[in-house]
Hints:
Elements: E1 4-9, E2 39-41, E3 49-55, H1 58-65, E4 71-78, H2 83-91, E5 94-97, E6 100-103, E7 108-112, E8 133-140, H3 147-154, E9 159-167, E10 170-171, E11 180-183
Parallel strand pairs: 3-9
Antiparallel strand pairs: 1-3, 1-11, 2-3, 4-8, 4-9, 5-6, 7-8, 9-10
Amino acid sequence: MHQHFILHKPYGFLSQFIYELKRKKKLLGELYNFPEGTMAIGRLDEDSEGLLLLTTDGKVSEQIRSKKVDKEYYVQVDGIITLEAIEKLQNGVEIGFKGTKYTTKPCKSFLVSEIPNFGERGKKIRDERHGPTSWASITVNEGKFRQVRKMTAAVGFPTLRLVRIRIGNVHLNELKAGEVIEVSDFN
Length: 187
């Protein structure tokens, strides 16, 4: 019988259970006593936070990582993001990927007018003295390395905080950073 988990990955954790390099890193196993064979479905880099699905079923992992499943992110950016920048994101922007130029596929993107209540991040971003920030939603179904961060930088608004809030039909909802719930499936 396979097991499935929904996790709100906190800032500063790697989306993995084993890290073999010398530097000490925070790993998912520190958050919950996951059963042997549990794997993260996709990844969030160390600086990113939010929804992470985990499973003991490799087939489920493959289905969710496919391009058929949308992944939605809330992104806090440096400056007040413009409608022109949002439109560029929607149409696809050129980013660097593995040493070559890559144009992202068209995606859904919009301004987020109300500041999301994700709680304090593990490491303070900065304060208002450094200028204003704003939030946008970006929904993609591809996942190149640090793609969303590269996309916002490409339109002139570097990412300060990135929180994945949805994968397919699964939402982060009210889960607090570090919280884990076991579910029967991801539908």
